[in-house]
Specification:
The complex is a heterodimer of chains A (1176) and B (243).
Chain A: H1 16-21, H2 25-34, E1 47-48, E2 51-59, E3 63-70, E4 76-83, H3 89-105, E5 114-119, E6 125-130, E7 135-136, H4 137-143, H5 148-167, E8 180-185, E9 188-193, H6 198-202, H7 227-230, H8 239-255, H9 262-267, H10 270-279, H11 285-291, H12 295-301, H13 307-314, H14 317-325, H15 337-348, H16 360-370, H17 372-415, H18 420-542, H19 546-554, H20 563-572, E10 577-580, E11 592-595, E12 601-605, E13 609-614, E14 620-625, E15 629-633, E16 639-643, E17 652-656, E18 661-666, E19 673-678, E20 684-689, E21 693-698, E22 704-709, E23 715-720, E24 726-731, E25 736-740, E26 745-750, E27 757-762, E28 768-773, E29 778-782, E30 788-792, E31 799-804, E32 810-815, E33 818-823, E34 829-833, E35 841-846, E36 852-857, E37 861-866, E38 873-875, E39 884-887, E40 894-898, E41 903-908, E42 913-918, E43 925-930, E44 936-941, E45 945-950, E46 956-962, E47 967-972, E48 978-983, E49 987-992, E50 997-1003, E51 1010-1013, E52 1019-1023, E53 1028-1033, E54 1041-1044, E55 1052-1057, E56 1063-1068, E57 1074-1078, E58 1084-1088, E59 1095-1100, E60 1106-1111, ...
Antiparallel strand pairs in A: 1-2, 2-3, 3-4, 4-6, 5-6, 7-8, 8-9, 10-37, 11-12, 12-13, 13-14, 15-16, 16-17, 17-18, 19-20, 20-21, 21-22, 23-24, 24-25, 25-26, 27-28, 28-29, 29-30, 31-32, 32-33, 33-34, 35-36, 36-37, 38-65, 39-40, 40-41, 41-42, 43-44, 44-45, 45-46, 47-48, 48-49, 49-50, 51-52, 52-53, ...
Chain B: H1 18-24, H2 31-44, H3 46-54, H4 59-73, H5 89-109, H6 124-132, H7 141-164, H8 168-174, H9 187-194, H10 198-221, H11 228-242
Classes of the chains: A alpha+beta (1176), B mainly alpha (243).
Chain lengths: 1176, 243
């Protein structure tokens, strides 16, 4: 199903009218009901005790808040909140009283005091609170573009206020921005938490806590509710529930949006809300921010930063703090509001927060950030230490080497006494050097000492770190203890879970049932959609919106389609074939359309082209172009007359179509020729112009034979009579004129049309003239006298084209996109041929044997119908009644009793003639039935005889059954082997049709009105027209099964067996109800309601999937035989329905009416088969 | 002729509503009762039309039947069979209509045509157009009748509310708040738009809601027999539009 418009508040579906006004009727009524008991408090002085109302502050889910002035004992402004829930006031006040003392002890600058409580004169509770002229904290922070740091500071103070209340034992339960108001005091923003104690007082108790009222409207604010609050089965709410709400508030302050989107939360039913809050992990603030996309920069702007920086800021501490406060499990949240405030403070001081996971990079990172200076110094010390050590090592080795060298030198001195002074000086020098070395080494040692001292400092620092680490460990240990707590809680949970497991089992069983129910619903919805599409398609077809109708039909689910679907589809286009004409750029005004004389080809000629098709295969045979504006063609399409395209040239060209040669030119007109016609053998052409002139031409010589001032205004239609002796013209002056071709003189004019006459035709016997006009009627006139005979109304536009069938019995008229067939004798509508035309129909033509009719539209399409049966419509014999009627199973024969001639006639609708007529005693039939299996007809007559006849030739079979009274009803079994008769002397008989022996008999309580055999031939159901139906098993011969309608129902008038023999349907008088019964037990199975008048005709479709009923309410209804859903109402029967029958292939439905007409309802398949057969 | 459209202000006072007047009258043909009944019918004929169409009647038939029903309603004493103590106009209409349709078929079968000129002006084309817009789901004719009844009632109340409120432009903006505080528009926004203070907006909304409630109750009262039935009827209507 596509998205239906829904009300954003209650998620109910909005109807079309509600969608237009935008007001949801549900919400409107709910509001009206909820507001019961409100007083008009604004106008005039209203007093609640000592409180005088000043004005309205706002209206919320729980009540209305007013600004009031307290006069006694002190004068001050207060906020007065009147609760509007339907609660027992005493209960509310009592609960409030119990908290009152605790509330009175609360004294915190950031908590708005609740001062008083009472009841209105009407008995509704109200609370009096300190008046806080502030904005909700979120709004305030946004308006003042407060940075996150400032927000956090503000928030900390809120936490401390909440902590204060918790210490006094008061839980708020409803913390949200509108309950935390901020206002400027001495240029500093001050937050105040309001409504402490109110939520508890009006709380109905944990077991009844609900987010909705009974009417389904929200009263709480689910966005801020903790998981345990949302839970229905009572868990106690403790202080941590406020922590959760604070967490949500913090979330909103930091990243500008709620963790769970309001819309998503409120869209579902209560269970969905509960699930989301209890189970879904909200995204972290930083993630949420980055997912906002463009909005993120707006959010950041309100915090005096940019989106990227804000995200960075949120990552880490702020994420963790918020998520910890919002932990699903309350044991994992901050244990108190002051802990939350403390962690925020730590974050603001760049210290590690409790909420973070203990990872080393975090520790080091934090440490580095905090102690930036000392860390750098430490690095420097390391470097110099290393360098110093290298220096002293190098120096040490240097000194060793020197000593060895000095020893070598002394040995040299002994050898060289002479150079002793030099040697001593040398030694002294070296000694000095060694001294210098020693000094350097001393310095090195001093440096090393210094470094050692510094290392000691480091050690102290490391000690401090260890202390912090120890704190961490303590924290971890505490968490471990918590985990232990959790474990024992988990043990409890397991028990609960076991219980829940049992509940879950029930639930899954219920779910299984629900699934089955959902499946049933799905099927039901499918069926309903099918039925709805059928109805819509039917309506569209009636309004001639074929494309729409097709679309609807194609939407139907495939496995639900039945006869009624095929029928509607067929109704969309009942033509045999559509021939695509050449696409002409210029719209074709009046194409010449016709069948060749031998009926093998169809031609069509228009502004500049001519096309031929095969009339059997409908394949195109070729065409020609460039004729100028074709006005008419001869009967065979061999010669054409066209007008010139040149301005000022009013002559006509006489063409040979095949060779394209202009044979003659008809010159003489003084204005533009609009229409023309050939006579039957092509020897004469008549043309009419826009100035009202008609000229008659000889096609052999090209001379004009006559010139007539025919009409005032243009000549719009011309036609010859079939022998060419007469011409009929129609003009814009609304006149129809008849001319004598021989003398060229006018015979008479026929007024009467209300608009221009657009089309004319002569009947083949020259007796009738038909004219179609812009006044939307077709009129039939006596051709000899001009007397009006019939006026055919019903068209919606001007009648552009008419044609009369070669046998003169049918008039075809085309107007807009509708093609209608009328019975020429009675003027009654026979059929409307439906098709999805692309544009208006402009030409109609029968073929020479009248079996086909073709029509062409201005867009160049040509469609062909079977003119005799056109697949459907009404068959009437000209001007006679029938009081008994039977239709053969294929509809090829109709047998009827003609009361006027007292004869039994067999009528062939195709040739419209009776193939045989019987007179005599046996012909005075009182009942008639066709044998479905063979061409046999059964009759019951006034001479009490029952006879079988060969339907083809009217020869009687041997054997005549004799009753003691005339038969009133006859019916064959499906195989034709048995015949059931009911007679007026209450006798029910079953005959073997081969021998006409009576093999079963029974006597009923009254004249037999209904008698139907079961499909197995063994069972018979019969009724006397009262409330009962008796079912016999003829093989057993026991008493019959009695099926009885409830008292007060009317009589049973019709019955039908399902093809499998398992069910019997009965139709009757009582409010047109049809009942279905089990045929063996008589148990009632269903009642089909819909008809508003007695049901005289009833049948199942041959495949057993449909029940079709006909009633005196002039409708035929199709029902689903399995689900008993109504599927289609065929309301265009326009007479009471006497009989209904299907053709054996289940494609055609026949109905008869008391006036003797037979109606045929065809389907697509049947028409296709016909076309295929004829194409061969 | 008394003006029966008076709406009672304040609670606890049940006015002489149109339906209660009709019920109280013994003679259905008194001028007052006829006027009242005619008045009610003029308001509530469309649900009957939808009912009869959903039953399967063709368009012309449905129009005929609806028109014909009202023609005879004021003549025949259908009220005679009706439970005057507990009956509501809504039930009365459908029951009487069913009777009529049944009788009419009998009459037609016997060849007679319905009698009486129509005393109501029913816009037939409009009716069919509205009917075509009915959602094509599985509502039974009775259900469609009830639902339509409820929607007609609400429409009429809104209409009266709109007529009362002036200027109409302001009403158009305020009426969005009738059902609650809509998302996307705040009081301050609307106050800025209308050029009045936010407090004045709140007051106006509050008043509008109150007035709607009053008018709705009055409208319902016009169709029930006693004050106790008003609440019940309202609950019924809510259940019907919620389906």
């Amino acid at each position: 199903m596509s998205d239906l418009p829904r009300c954003p508040q209650c998620s109910g579906v909005l109807g079309l009218d509600a969608a237009a006004t935008g007001i949801c009727p549900r919400c409107l009524l709910t509001m009206a009901m909820a507001g019961e008991g409100e007083e008009e408090t604004i106008s005039g002085e209203q007093t609640y005790g000592v409180y005088h109302i000043v004005r309205l502050l706002g209206e919320g889910g729980m009540g209305t808040v007013y600004l009031a002035e307290q006069r006694h004992p002190i004068s001050r402004l207060v906020a007065l909140k009147v609760i509007k829930l339907g609660m027992d006031t005493r209960e509310v006040i009592a609960r409030f009283e119990s908290e009152r003392r605790a509330l009175a002890l609360m004294d915190h600058p950031n908590i708005a005091k609740v001062l008083d409580a009472g009841a209105t004169p009407q008995g509704r509770p109200y609370f009096v609170m300190e008046y806080v002229p502030g904005s909700p904290i979120t709004e305030y922070c946004d308006e003042h573009h407060m940075s996150n740091r400032h927000r956090l500071e503000l928030f900390s103070r809120v936490c401390q206020a909440v902590q204060h209340a918790h210490q006094k034992g008061i839980i708020h339960r409803d913390l949200k921005p509108s309950n935390v108001l901020v206002w400027l005091q001495d240029d500093k923003p001050v937050p105040k938490v309001i409504d402490f104690g109110v939520a508890k007082a009006i709380d109905r108790g944990a077991t009844e806590r609900s987010v909705f009222t009974e009417l389904g409207m929200f009263i709480g604010t689910p966005e801020y509710m903790s998981p345990e609050q949302v839970q229905l089965i009572g868990q106690d709410v403790d202080t941590t529930t406020d922590i959760y709400s604070l967490g949500v508030l913090l979330y909103e302050l930091l990243c500008g949006v709620l963790p769970f989107d309001s819309r998503n939360l409120r869209r579902g039913a209560y269970d969905e809300i509960r699930r989301i809050i209890r189970e879904e992990e909200p995204p972290r603030p930083s993630a949420r921010l980055s997912n906002l996309g463009a909005e993120a920069s707006e959010v950041a702007q309100r915090r005096q930063t940019d989106a990227a920086a804000l995200e960075r800021d949120l990552r880490g501490d702020l994420n963790w703090i918020t998520m910890k406060a919002m932990a699903k499990h309350r044991g994992r949240r901050y244990a108190s509001a002051s802990e939350l405030a403390a962690d925020i403070a730590r974050h603001l001081r760049d210290e590690p927060v409790m909420a973070s996971p203990p990872s080393t990079p975090y520790r080091v990172g934090k440490f580095m950030k905090k102690n930036r200076g000392p860390v750098l110094a430490l690095a420097a010390v390391f470097v110099s230490l290393v360098l110093g050590m290298t220096a002293s090592t190098v120096l040490y080795f240097g000194a060793e080497r020197q000593r060895l060298e000095a020893q070598a030198q002394r040995i040299e001195v002994e050898r060289q006494r002479g150079a002793a002074e030099q040697e001593r000086a040398e030694a002294r020098r070296q000694g000095t050097q060694a001294e210098r070395q020693r000094v350097l080494a001393e310095q090195a040692r001093k440096t090393a000492d210094q470094q050692r001292r510094e290392a000691e400092l480091q050690h102290a620092e490391a000690e401090r770190q260890r202390t912090v680490a120890e704190q961490q460990t303590a924290e971890a240990r505490r968490r471990g203890a918590e985990a232990l707590q959790d474990r024992s809680a988990a043990e409890q949970q397991r028990e609960v879970a076991q219980q829940q497991g049992r509940v879950a089992e029930q639930a899954s069983r219920a779910a299984g049932e629900q699934r089955a129910a959902a499946e049933r619903q799905r099927l039901l919805a499918l069926r309903q959609s099918y039925a709805a599409n059928l109805i819509a398609a039917d309506l569209h077809i009636r309004s001639n919106e074929i494309a729409e109708a097709r679309r609807r039909l194609l939407l139907c689910p495939a496995d639900l389609k039945g006869w009624e679907w095929r029928y509607l589809l067929w109704k969309c286009d009942t033509s045999l074939a559509t021939l695509a004409g050449p696409t002409t750029a210029a719209p074709v005004s009046k194409p010449a359309l016709g069948f060749s004389q031998d009926g093998t080809r169809i031609f069509w000629a228009s502004s500049d082209a001519m096309e031929w098709w095969s009339a059997s295969s409908y394949k195109p045979l070729g065409g020609y172009r460039d004729f100028g504006r074709v006005l008419a063609s001869d009967a065979d399409g061999v010669r054409l007359v066209s007008a010139s395209a040149r301005d000022g040239d009013y002559s006509l060209r006489f063409f040979d179509a095949a060779s394209h040669k202009v044979l003659l030119t008809f010159a003489g007109h003084k204005s533009e020729a609009i229409c023309a016609a050939f006579n039957w053998n092509g020897t004469r052409v008549v043309s009419g112009t826009s100035d009202g002139t008609i000229m008659l031409w000889d096609t052999a010589s090209g001379h004009s034979l006559a010139r007539l001032d025919a009409h005032k205004g243009g000549v719009r239609a011309l036609a010859f009579s079939s022998d060419g002796a007469r011409i009929v013209s129609g003009g814009e002056d609304r006149m129809v004129r008849i001319w004598d071709t021989g003398t060229g003189r006018a015979m008479y004019g026929i007024p009467g049309h209300g608009g221009a006459v657009l089309s004319t035709a002569f009947s083949p016997d020259r007796g009738t003239v038909a004219s179609g006009s812009a006044d939307r009627t077709v009129r039939l006139w006596d051709a000899a006298t001009g007397r009006p005979m019939h006026t055919l109304t019903g068209h919606e536009c001007g009648v552009e084209a008419i044609a009369i069938s070669p046998d003169g019995t049918t008039i075809a008229s085309a107007s807009c996109r509708t093609l209608r067939l009328w019975d020429a004798a009675s003027g009654r509508l026979t059929a409307t041929l439906a098709a999805g035309w692309r544009s208006d129909i402009t030409a109609v033509s029968f073929n020479t044997d009248g079996a086909r009719i073709a029509a062409a539209s201005a867009a160049g399409e040509v469609k062909v119908w079977n003119a005799l049966t056109y697949g459907g419509g009404i068959l009437r014999r000209a001007g006679s009644d029938a009081d008994r009627l039977a239709v053969s199973s294929t509809g090829a024969r109709i047998a009827f009793h003609n009361p006027k001639t007292q004869a039994l006639e067999m009528w062939d609708p195709r040739s419209r003639k009776s193939t045989w007529i019987l007179r005599g005693d046996d012909a005075q039939v009182t009942a008639l039935a066709f044998n479905p299996a063979s061409n046999r007809l059964a009759t019951g007559s006034t001479n009490n005889g029952v006879r079988i006849w060969d339907a083809l030739n009217g020869h009687p079979n041997d054997g005549r059954g004799m009753l003691s009274a005339p038969a009133t009803s006859l019916a064959f079994t499906a195989d034709g082997a048995r015949l059931v008769s009911g007679s007026s002397d209450h006798a029910l008989s079953v005959w073997d049709t081969a021998s006409m022996r009576r093999i079963f008999g029974a006597t009923l309580a009254g004249p037999v009105r209904v008698a139907v055999p079961g499909p197995d031939g063994r069972h018979v159901a019969a009724g006397t027209g009262d409330r009962t139906l008796l079912v016999w098993d003829t093989a057993n011969g026991g008493p019959p099964l009695r099926i009885e309608l409830p008292v007060g129902s009317g009589s049973i008038l019709s019955a039908a067996y399902s093809p499998d023999g398992r069910r019997v349907a009965s139709g009757g008088e009582g409010s047109g109800e049809i009942r279905v019964w089990d045929a063996s037990s008589g148990q009632p199975l269903a009642v089909l309601r819909g008809h508003s008048a007695p049901v005289d005709a009833l049948t199942f479709s041959p495949d057993g999937s449909r029940i079709v009923s006909g009633s005196r309410d002039k409708t035929v209804r199709v029902w689903d035989a399995a689900t008993y859903d109504p599927l289609l109402v065929m309301g265009d029967h326009d007479e009471a329905v006497a009989l209904l029958a299907f053709s054996p292939d289940g494609n055609r439905l026949f109905s008869t009416s008391p006036d003797g007409a037979v109606r045929i309802w065809d389907t697509q398949i049947s028409a296709d088969a016909k076309q295929a057969k004829e194409a061969k | 002729m008394a003006d029966l459209d008076t709406v009672a202000k304040g609670r606890g006072q049940f006015p002489t509503t149109r339906w209660s007047v009709i019920l109280a009258t013994r003679e259905p043909s008194t001028a007052v009762a006829r006027a009242a009944l005619s008045n009610l019918c003029q308001s509530y004929w469309y649900p009957l039309y939808a009912y009869i169409r959903r039953q399967g009647h063709a368009v012309e038939d449905a129009q005929d039947l609806t028109q014909g029903f009202f023609a005879v309603l004021l003549e025949k004493d259908y009220l005679a069979d009706f439970d005057r103590e507990r009956g509501r106009f809504r039930s009365f209409m459908i029951v009487a209509f069913r009777h009529y349709v049944g009788n009419e078929h009998e009459r037609r079968r016997a060849g007679k045509r319905g009698g009486g000129a129509s005393v109501l002006s029913l816009d037939a084309e409009d009716a069919e157009r509205r009917y075509r817009l009915e959602p094509a789901h599985h509502l039974t004719p009775e259900r469609i009748y009830d639902r339509r009844w409820a929607l007609v009632l609400i429409d009429r109340t809104l209409e009266r509310l709109s007529q009362e409120s002036a200027p109409s432009a302001r009403f158009d903006r305020l009426k969005m708040f009738l059902t609650g505080d809509p998302a996307g528009v705040s009081y301050s926004q609307l106050a800025a738009e209308l050029g009045i203070s936010e407090g004045a907006v709140k007051v106006a909304v509050h008043r509008l809601r109150r007035r709607f409630r009053d008018l709705l109750e009055a409208e319902i009262s016009d169709t029930v027999a006693s004050p106790e039935q008003v609440k019940d009827e309202m609950r019924f209507l809510l259940s019907v539009v919620s389906a």
